[in-house]
Design brief:
The complex is a heterodimer of chains A (about 280) and B (about 180).
Chain A lengths: L2 E2 L10 H16 L2 E8 L2 E8 L6 H21 L7 H6 L10 H16 L16 H16 L5 E6 L2 E5 L6 E7 L2 E11 L1 E8 L20 E6 L2 H14 L1 H9 L4 E6 L4 E7 L1
Parallel strand pairs in A: 1-11
Antiparallel strand pairs in A: 2-3, 3-4, 4-5, 5-8, 6-7, 8-9, 9-10, 10-11
Helix pairs in contact in A: 2-5, 5-6, 6-7
Chain B lengths: L1 H18 L11 E4 L5 E5 L7 E5 L35 E9 L2 E10 L2 E11 L2 H9 L3 E6 H6 L2 E5 L5 H5 L2 H10 L1
Parallel strand pairs in B: 1-3
Antiparallel strand pairs in B: 1-4, 2-3, 4-5, 5-6
Classes of the chains: A alpha+beta (about 280), B alpha+beta (about 180).
Pfam families (chain B): FMN_bind
GO molecular function (chain B): FMN binding
EC number (chain A): 2.7.1.180
Chain lengths: ~280, ~180
């Protein structure tokens, strides 16, 4: 179990605000809701619809289209399919201008991410050229949320730990953050109406994030970033791992419109919120 | 002692400048810092180029200055002169506030054993979007057990990417199962 230590007491639970938030979350949990889960891109995709149309046939059709979109993105951007647009681009058989929208968009977002993170998030820093895999999942989650948003209700998408939500009822989606030291527990939660939470860590798949041109990133155990865009949240959660505990704290504090949790190797949890 | 406090306030001002970055190009920033043992005025030049001033007042103000960590009474007494570690900072919690386009931002720095042990920030705002980031979207630290997750209204779980096998044993899988029922 991680221990929360360095949060000044003054910033911990304001009881009145806390009770109000809990009451809203309970009301939200009482709405009619339906969930789906299917495996795509080698990971489970959890979709949620909340509100009076949750059980409608029309809603199920929108969900089916959302899953079809994930399959299509996977066909185009998979690094494991020799015939994907990504692999053909990497082999020089496909020009970016002729590539499907997904590849062009992900390529552009990778350029922006590298610039915004001063090179810490680098899709070109791997051993064999352009590999956008670190960004593809977040981008796909955003596309799926766009499709789900056609439903007249509250919608949420979760894949590989990235969660993006949209609420029309005004009631929040309560998103938990897993404790990397005990996966059956939550380290905390965040209430969101329109936004995203992304977590990157070394607990579940070992040290899979690598410092560009270097070894595995080990300076931070887990980073969770809350932001308005899931791509941004995902990019910065990954970047935090690359930067390590000390540099991540300084950099994320300065990021407008973000909040989150950093879990240091010793279990210390650091929390921030920047308007 | 005075020099130490001033350096603390300079740190606070620098942190406020960090928080203020998005608006630093639009207008100069003014920040008021209250520290328990401080007297006098400290001015810091943040790297953004905007000017920030920290005005320190000698009296401990409830809510902005809290007791050092070893004082469990929770009173707002300022740390005594004698708590300063040689060459370090005076123990205590220091809060600096500044006004930004979207509302007030405050940064709290905790000094314990002569070193900065904690830095955190919060804000109040009248802009709904940034209010959400500040209040609703500030992750609440909790040790919530699986059994309590449903009762707490948890809908989804953010976690490090894991394999399908690891997913099968996860809290997200349990929530997914419940949601399909």
């Amino acid at each position: 179990m991680s221990t929360a230590t360095d949060v000044p007491l003054a910033l911990l639970a304001d009881d009145a605000r806390r009770e109000e938030a809990d009451a809203l979350a309970r009301r939200a949990a009482d709405l009619p809701a339906r969930g789906w889960v299917e495996h795509r891109m080698a990971m489970p995709w959890s979709l949620r619809v909340r509100g009076r149309h949750a059980h409608d046939e029309d809603t199920a059709q929108v969900v089916a289209r959302a899953y079809a979109l994930v399959a299509e993105i996977d066909e185009q951007l998979s690094p494991f399919r020799p015939d994907s647009a990504l692999e053909r681009y990497r082999r020089g058989e496909l020009a970016l201008a002729d590539a499907p929208r997904s590849l062009r968009q992900v390529h552009r977002r990778c350029l922006l991410a590298r610039e915004e993170t001063d090179g810490a998030f680098d899709a070109w820093g791997w051993r064999d050229g352009f590999d956008p895999t670190g960004l593809t999942k977040g981008w796909a989650v955003a596309q799926v949320l766009d499709v789900l948003a056609e439903v007249d209700g509250d919608v949420a998408v979760g894949a590989g730990g990235d969660v993006a939500v949209l609420s029309r009822t005004g009631l929040p989606w309560r998103v938990g953050v897993e404790d990397p030291e005990d996966r059956s527990r939550l380290l905390g939660h965040v209430d969101l109406r329109d936004g995203a939470v992304a977590t990157s860590g070394t607990a579940a798949r070992g040290e899979h994030v690598r410092v560009p041109g270097g070894g595995a990133a080990t300076g931070l155990r887990q980073a969770t970033v809350v932001a308005s865009s899931v791509v941004r949240a995902d990019v910065w959660a990954t970047t935090a791992l690359v930067l390590g505990a000390v540099r991540a704290r300084g950099r994320l504090h300065a990021l407008p419109g973000t909040s989150g949790l950093l879990v240091e190797p010793g279990g210390t949890v650091h929390r921030w919120a920047t308007p | 002692m005075r020099r130490i406090v001033l350096s603390t306030l300079a740190t606070v001002s620098g942190l406020v400048a960090l928080f203020s970055y998005p608006t630093s190009l639009d207008r100069p920033l003014t920040s008021d810092a209250t520290a328990g043992t401080a007297s006098g005025t400290s001015t810091a030049e943040p790297t953004s180029g905007a000017s920030a001033t920290a005005d320190a007042t000698p009296s401990p103000t409830a809510g902005t200055t809290t007791a050092p960590a070893d004082d469990t009474s929770g009173t707002t007494t300022a740390p005594a002169e004698g708590t300063t570690t040689d060459g370090g900072l005076a123990d205590g919690t220091y809060t600096a506030s500044t006004t930004m386009r979207y509302g007030a931002v405050s940064v709290t720095v905790t000094v314990s054993g002569g070193a900065v042990t904690g830095v955190s920030g919060t804000q109040s705002s009248n802009d709904p979007k940034s209010e959400q980031i500040a209040a609703g979207a500030m992750p609440t630290l909790d040790q919530e057990a699986v059994a309590a997750a449903g009762d707490a209204g948890i809908a989804m779980v953010s976690h490090a990417t894991y394999t399908s096998q690891a997913y099968a044993q996860s809290l997200q899988a349990a929530l997914d199962q419940a949601a399909q029922a």
